[in-house]
Fold:
Amino acid sequence: MYFKTEQFFGEDLMRREFGMDLVSSCKTEEVLVILKQNREKHEIAFKEAQEGYLVKAKDVLNKKLKAIKSGKIEDVNVHLTIPTNHLSEYDTVIKMLEMHSKDTVELNVNEVRQFIEDKWSWSSSFAMTNSVYMGLKKG
Structure:
């Protein structure tokens, strides 16, 4: 039987096991600094994956074109997953915190996981997709 890890950890666990919603009061400026660092890492990873995607796509298409030009019947379908960009999600939270009028902000377990630990619902698929293209450089 398959269970999502969120069913056993984090906010759901706190509610189920202890009957409470865990909330942490954090310094707004510290959260902002961490979020901006996480955003920068995300942007670097995305740009590298995007560059690698273009290298890979050109390589695949050139090979197919070369085969077709030589008279070979070639499947022209290309199945490459496009790297995803989630900068807007960082930007929204950063803007909200910049507009926040208090020195502290309360974060729940899921918000700490996302904003501080940089573990978003899309993090696994982002890492998996981008890992295919990381390290591929323009030649």
Summary: The radius of gyration is 21 Å. The chain has one domain: 28-70+85-139. Residues 7 and 16 are 9 Å apart (CA to CA).
